Amino acid sequence: MPLPIRNYAQLSKIKHFYGSKFLLNEKIHDKILDKLKIEKTFKNPKEMKVLDLYSGPGQHSAIFYNRYKPNQYGVMESRPDFQKILKEQYEGSPIQIFAKDPYEWTSYTDLIDSEKRFVPEKQPHESLNDKFMVIANLTNSAHEGLLMQWFNCIGNTNWLQRFGYVKMLLWVPVSSAIKLLAAPGMHMRSKCSVVREAFTDTNLVAISNGIEKKLFDKNLFESNDPFIFQNEDTYPQRGDGIALLEVNPKKHITDLDNWDYVTKHLLILRKTRLKDAVESLGHGAKDYFSQKVEDPTFLNKYPVDLTNEDFNYLTNLFNLWPFKPDIYMDFIDIYQEEGMM
């Protein structure tokens, strides 16, 4: 028997949405799942486990469960009004409700390691884990920093990414999606979009219809061809639009410590020519890089124009520098980067 699904009129009566926004149209959720074709990764969906973070009222949770009937579906939600509606609707159902805060690291270690109520299958970091997936709603603007932490966890293979390369479906504000998907040379290009490029293949799956669509890279928007829905299908309707990202972690050979140091320092000076910006990597770096970079025109670029491949090239040169500084004594705040995430 399929799980009951409450509609927009019923769910919009919830008193508090805690700064988050949710798509509450069952037909659109179905169309988005059609577009995702997760069966390509999860050959047998009934063997998969899904952890749904900040699930809110859980409409999408029930829709997903009814379609795929995964082996285990857990929602992690601690906000009182959402807890109440989830218990009313799904307590005693195949959807398990974990009253924990997805922001807290201990929520995961307790649930998985101590209580063992949700234990994903661990797979090698070679390809996407075909038994475990994460869904999350990070549309509250206060969660933007948490979103970036999760992308860093992919590079470091910790948090839930310790179980292999775990696909994530993330609902985020359109403004965050623009930052993450910014291409080299774009105004919003920053450390977060380089992290996204380095460690994932991320696709824009769906987006609410608004003028912000024009701020995405045109080629990316056309190639991803996101499903566009109306703001009237979301609640609350006020505020910025939302977008769904499909995040596919990928294998990388990045020298993480040196790469982080180089990208962090250079992107603080994102609009300073490389020939001058490299001096921020350490005293004497300008002379060193001018001798080592084979293409003299490369140093006329700006950090904002660089691809992750370019940053890897500079990182390799930095690592070979006999007089490079001790990167572990570096205390620069990455948020100096002109207000970028």
UniProtKB/TrEMBL annotation:
<keyword id="KW-0698">rRNA processing</keyword>
<feature type="binding site">
    <location>
        <position position="23"/>
    </location>
    <ligand>
        <name>S-adenosyl-L-methionine</name>
    </ligand>
</feature>
<dbReference type="GO" id="GO:0006391">
    <property type="term" value="P:transcription initiation at mitochondrial promoter"/>
</dbReference>
<dbReference type="InterPro" id="IPR023165">
    <property type="entry name" value="rRNA_Ade_diMease-like_C"/>
</dbReference>
<protein>
    <recommendedName>
        <fullName>rRNA adenine N(6)-methyltransferase</fullName>
        <ecNumber>2.1.1.-</ecNumber>
    </recommendedName>
</protein>
<dbReference type="GO" id="GO:0034245">
    <property type="term" value="C:mitochondrial DNA-directed RNA polymerase complex"/>
</dbReference>
<dbReference type="GO" id="GO:0003723">
    <property type="term" value="F:RNA binding"/>
</dbReference>
<dbReference type="GO" id="GO:0034246">
    <property type="term" value="F:mitochondrial transcription factor activity"/>
</dbReference>
<feature type="binding site">
    <location>
        <position position="101"/>
    </location>
    <ligand>
        <name>S-adenosyl-L-methionine</name>
    </ligand>
</feature>
<dbReference type="InterPro" id="IPR001737">
    <property type="entry name" value="KsgA/Erm"/>
</dbReference>
<keyword id="KW-0808">Transferase</keyword>
<feature type="binding site">
    <location>
        <position position="77"/>
    </location>
    <ligand>
        <name>S-adenosyl-L-methionine</name>
    </ligand>
</feature>
<dbReference type="Pfam" id="PF00398">
    <property type="entry name" value="RrnaAD"/>
</dbReference>
<feature type="binding site">
    <location>
        <position position="137"/>
    </location>
    <ligand>
        <name>S-adenosyl-L-methionine</name>
    </ligand>
</feature>
<dbReference type="GO" id="GO:0000179">
    <property type="term" value="F:rRNA (adenine-N6,N6-)-dimethyltransferase activity"/>
</dbReference>
<keyword id="KW-0949">S-adenosyl-L-methionine</keyword>
<comment type="similarity">
    <text>Belongs to the class I-like SAM-binding methyltransferase superfamily. rRNA adenine N(6)-methyltransferase family.</text>
</comment>
<dbReference type="InterPro" id="IPR029063">
    <property type="entry name" value="SAM-dependent_MTases_sf"/>
</dbReference>
<feature type="binding site">
    <location>
        <position position="21"/>
    </location>
    <ligand>
        <name>S-adenosyl-L-methionine</name>
    </ligand>
</feature>
<comment type="function">
    <text>Mitochondrial transcription factor that confers selective promoter recognition on the core subunit of the yeast mitochondrial RNA polymerase. Interacts with DNA in a non-specific manner.</text>
</comment>
<keyword id="KW-0694">RNA-binding</keyword>
<keyword id="KW-0489">Methyltransferase</keyword>
<dbReference type="GO" id="GO:0005759">
    <property type="term" value="C:mitochondrial matrix"/>
</dbReference>
